[in-house]
Design goal:
Two copies of one chain form a homodimer. Chain A has about 400 residues and is α/β, with parallel strands linked by helices. Chain A is built from 13 helices and 13 strands. Chain A has a seven-stranded mixed sheet with strand order 2-10-9-8-5-3-4, sandwiched between helices. Chain A has a two-stranded parallel ribbon with strand order 1-12. A two-stranded antiparallel sheet of chain A has the order 6-7. Chains A and B meet through helix 1, helix 2, helix 3, helix 4 and helix 9 of A and helix 1, helix 2, helix 3, helix 4 and helix 9 of B.
């Protein structure tokens, strides 16, 4: 191996305006460059406790078990599903995009009996549709996605908690892409479990997943408790239900690691934890409501700009996430060529789409550190220039003027 | 929440001389403070390909599938075990410490039929003992730990590949704590899968796990291929064996994400990848053999120093890992009090022990960035001072002189 071919990390400057990951807040990267601590150092366990407190704020919950799962967003999803679903359990998944399919897929791997309801991509469910399905299926768990970036839609959740309670159903949502940029009220909405990710509205790098568990969900998980052979003592008792089919994602063990017993499990990813702490600290410093309003402001400015360029948007705008917008690729325009020019010549990334929307829709994000006016204006102006270059005509400057007008009327 | 109570990350300065995590190389932390890239940015996929090439060097392999699993070391272990073990498969685990128990635990959760052989903590197995057990059990997989920090022992592996080949057994080792500080020859020793971690000899923070898979192991995993609903096309075919009971750890999917198809799975933890790349780059720049020799030099200097202080060591020194040493806590000395004073008053962390060794043995590491003379000398001098303070008598300066003598005779 000629090692001289491998230079220092020196990524090109990019403005990441896709559906995530987005640019990390530089303050988060600085926090992550701090030197490490031992996992049982009092300074480290103090930081772990602070992370729990901060994410209680972010999730709007009093849940004791508000912790990090070391892995990307789907590690948080899988930890909750594997720990909560017993083989044979019935689950209901309202699917309105790719990440609903992912919940089904993970649930099937947990050997659940998976039931789905579907709406076309670009729509969401009414509470009645979900209640009807719950009556019919009688699931043990309702698995929802709050914001599905594949369609840019935000599923309203506020009425589902009461429905779940009425029928004795555990209520989970995947808030990976929505948390921090859209209202989420864990306790007020009766959620039993929520998972999230860093690389969207939280403004950090992918790599750790904040989750929160209600006391009821904790009780469900504790019934499947296990303690590892190499560290178990005579005082440890296992639960009476079948063990969880993963050690890494066994939330019983992970709670014992974050709890006062500090029972060794994995070695906490300290750098990722430092980053997650800073993301939450900055979010609480700004104020959660103010941060959500900021996402709404810049998301709407982007929408106005795109409309001002004469482009069509995708999906039901009444249920759009604040932080991502689907833009229909105009007839005769090569979507990938446009993305390539925007990336290579302007250093700006916008997103492609999956599945049925592939080749038909771009996805443009305004989230986390990039929910800013300068990011919106730069993206609109680069997109106008590239579209003009490839032959799509629009009124010069109309996109930026529409965004300016929006900012002017919302100052 | 009173957010003013949460200040910037500002960890106390610590010299981490336990069994890991240890201090990260500052160059690794700097690499990790780089701004992010989109996951399909050509610059990002180029870095992913470089990571594969660099870790082929570190693992001493030509294996194409040499990649990162986003999670801590045990994420790498679990990804391999979950993907390779089919429910009902027989596995053999030679247990010589806590991490052998962990392999059994994970294998049981994969619904394997788990068979073990055991030696007392502080010893390792002969190839004959393992061959006899293979003949008796006829397992599909042999699951080994190379270096078990719980006992500080290094299991010799070089003869096991031929034995596994003779009996048609897949051969895995957990090299979390040994890779980079002790010889590991993936190809020459006939290993089918190896997993590792960042926070030991590699000198980075916990949070991503490098793994390598032989072509034979790839074939085994491909039989269980799945493609997610939300991104599958008519061209995708599933394998003919039962699917893997995890989405996050489905190595078939993870290979398709790292391979030319770049099929979306998780969002790669870019910051962790930047760190892992820098760890491997620094290691290859130093030269793998030179790095291992450095671990041996400083590990032995620590051993001589500890012996010079009149302290007993734990386990069979012929089979000690280069990078960690078990030190028997002397009669009448409170091991936790000593660790506390060394930490609080000298800023140096040494390790406690698990299970049968708890309260009886300290574990002192010399690894990664901390396999250095100054780290060895500071640790010995702090330990001598604290032991003297709590009433354990030794000859003043003898520990440091023994280390100096060792360095002098190995210059």
């Amino acid at each position: 191996m000629d090692i001289s071919q491998f230079s220092q990390i020196n990524p090109p400057q990019r403005l990441l305006m896709g559906p995530g990951p987005i640019n990390a807040d530089p303050r988060v990267l600085r926090a992550m460059s701090s030197q490490l601590l031992g996992q049982y150092d009092p300074a480290m366990t103090h930081y772990m406790n602070e992370v729990m407190a901060l994410y209680r704020g972010v999730f709007r919950t009093e849940n004791r078990w508000t912790i990090l799962i070391d892995g990307t967003s789907r590690a948080g999803i899988e930890a909750i599903l594997l720990s909560a679903i017993r083989p044979g359990d019935k689950v209901l998944v309202p699917v309105f995009g790719r990440f609903g399919h992912l919940l089904c897929e993970i649930a099937r791997r947990c050997r659940a009996e998976v039931h789905t309801i579907e709406v076309p991509w670009g729509e969401v469910f009414t509470p009645d549709q979900i209640e009807d399905a719950i009556k019919k299926v009688q699931p043990r768990l309702l698995l929802t996605v709050q914001g599905d970036t594949s369609t840019t839609m935000l599923q309203p959740l506020e009425q589902l908690g009461a429905i779940c309670q009425k029928y004795g159903v555990l209520f989970y949502t995947d808030a990976t892409a929505s948390l921090g940029g859209n209202v989420l009220e864990t306790d007020a909405w009766g959620l039993d479990a929520v998972s999230a990710g860093m690389q969207k509205c939280l403004g950090g790098p992918s790599g750790t997943s904040p989750i929160t568990l209600s006391p009821q969900m904790e009780a469900v998980i504790r019934k499947r408790k296990c303690v590892e052979e190499g560290i178990r003592t005579a005082d440890h008792q296992d639960g009476d239900e079948e063990m969880i089919y993963s050690n890494y994602f066994d939330l019983g063990m992970i709670m014992d690691y974050w709890g006062p017993e500090r029972l060794n499990h994995h070695t906490e990813a300290t750098t990722a934890l430092f980053g997650a702490r800073e993301c939450a600290r900055l979010m609480m410093q700004e104020g959660l409501d103010k941060g959500i309003a900021r996402h709404k402001l810049h998301g709407e400015a982007m929408l106005k700009g795109i409309q001002g360029m004469g482009l069509e948007t995708f999906g039901d705008l009444k249920h759009k996430m604040n932080n991502v917008l689907g833009v229909v690729i105009p007839q005769g325009v090569n979507g990938d060529q446009v993305r390539k020019l925007v990336l290579e010549d302007f250093g700006i990334e916008i997103g492609t789409s999956f599945g049925p929307l592939h080749g038909k829709v771009w996805r443009i994000g305004t989230m986390g550190y990039n929910a800013r006016k300068d990011c919106v204006m730069q993206t609109l102006s680069a997109l106008e220039a590239v579209l003009n270059h490839v032959g799509y005509r629009s009124t010069q400057g109309a996109a930026m003027q529409a965004a300016w007008d929006h900012y002017g009327s919302h100052a």
